[in-house]
Amino acid sequence: MNPVQLRKWQELCAAVVPANSFYTAKLKGCDLSAFASLPLTTKKELVADQAANPPFGTNLTYPVERYSRFAQTSGSTGKPMRWLDTEESWEWMARNWRRVFETAGVTSEDRMFFAFSFGPFLGFWTAFEAASRLGCLCIPSGGMRSAARLHLFIDSEATVLCCTPTYALYLAQIAKEEGVYLAASPIRRIIVAGEPGGSILATRRELERLWNGAAVVDHHGMTEIGPVSYGCPAEPGVLHVMEDEFIAEVIDPASGLPLPEGSRGELVLTNLGRLGSPLIRYRTGDVVETRARGRCDCGSDELALVGGILGRTDDMVVVRGVNVYPTAVEDIVRSVGGVTEYRVRVFKDRSLVELAMDIELENGHGREVAHRLEFALRDALSLRVPVTVQAGGTLPRFEMKAKRWIRS
Fold first, then answer.
1. Same domain, 192 and 150
2. Torsion angle of alpha carbons 368, 373, 378, 380, nearest 10°?
3. Which of 256, 279, 312 is the last residue of a domain?
4. Which pTM value belongs to this model?
5. Which of 130, 158, 342, 386 supports an S-S bond with 98, CB 3.0-4.6 Å?
6. Cis ω for the linkage preceding 55 (within 30 of 0)
């Protein structure tokens, strides 16, 4: 730990033990100064704790009356978890988001458009508050249809769009259908979160093409852990972990043992400012690749995640001995071009796992796109993946995290 991390870790320990029932029991008998020897925390434990102690579980450092914010995980990888925050924890998350914005070059002169439903998923709630405290004009669009959102975005002359990468692609498609000329808008930044697309080279290039060269800035976080990283301003496709606010580790997902810098493995995080509902050595399930420590061209010496979030440990599919991550498939799809939306079907054929893909085509593109995509998938993955063209509007669209992989 660096000195700042050590001080905040000691403050966290003093607040949590013995006030927090979950961690007091979990850390009983442990030497809190021997951080690397402390037990890992898993989502399964947290879900079980909330089921046994409804409605919020025991990972609460203060009485429930002290908490003022409620959030719930998206449930994309299992049963949703409820999460409570104090005003102090909420302020901590807003400060983290402010750093994301400032590193991205956002100023008080920007008009920020939030294409987000503002439901119980944490999403852009703290981002909205951080932007308002930065002095930006903040424009919400919860409860609106996509076409109405697009016209509000244009009419308000927004300069920064905040949403998932999938939804930014979809809004660009809606613009074509509505005859809206995005090149006439003053958009200059697209800040994306919620899924890995912002650090996927081909997806980022496609977004920049569709949105008149607007710079795409990635960020990642989780409802239960908070805002974690910011997009490197010097090297697109790299995320830096805010290490004054988090202790980050990378482990072998199979053994749970730590891996050296420059390795690919599962990201483990400890948040140092969310004292009311902390997570200590939390297995995020996110697959990352770090690089050896050193000063980045942007001036940061904080941990660099090359390629952002590469996938999730529970997302990988083994097809005839080949490890296939959804992020790798998206990179191939966007590189080929001509595809507005796609879906991957995972199924078994005579006990063998197989993949098939459905796509919708951009206007002006023919079925040759499917043949190019089949060849690109075979070339990159050494797998035959049949691609079927579907009629426009057949496949689902997503505002939040896209669910393109269907398993049967």
1. yes
2. 140
3. 312
4. 0.87
5. 130
6. yes
CB 249 within 8 A of CB 7: no
**CATH number for 28:** 3.40.50.12780
pLDDT truncated to tens, each residue of the chain (408 aa)? 999 999 999 999 999 999 999 999 999 999 999 999 999 999 999 999 999 999 999 999 999 999 999 999 876 556 789 999 999 999 999 999 999 999 999 999 999 999 988 888 888 899 999 999 999 999 999 889 999 999 999 999 999 999 999 999 999 999 998 999 998 899 999 999 988 888 888 999 999 999 999 999 999 999 999 999 999 999 989 999 999 999 999 999 999 999 998 899 999 999 999 999 999 999 999 999 999 888 999 999 999 999 999 888 878 888 888 888 888 899 899 999 999 999 999 998 777 889 999 999 988 788 899 999 999 999 988 889 999 999 988 999 887 788 899 887
Number of domains in the chain: 3
Here the CATH number for the domain that contains residue 375 is 3.30.300.30
Q: Is the dihedral of CA 373, 375, 377, 379 positive or negative?
A: negative
CB contact at 8 A, 111 and 157: yes
> Same domain for 99 and 212?
yes
Q: For residue 121, what are the domain limits?
A: 91-219
Interatomic CA distance for residues 74 and 187, integer angstroms = 29
- From residue 223, how far is each of 48, 81, 118, 277, 278 by CA, in Å? 17, 9, 13, 11, 12
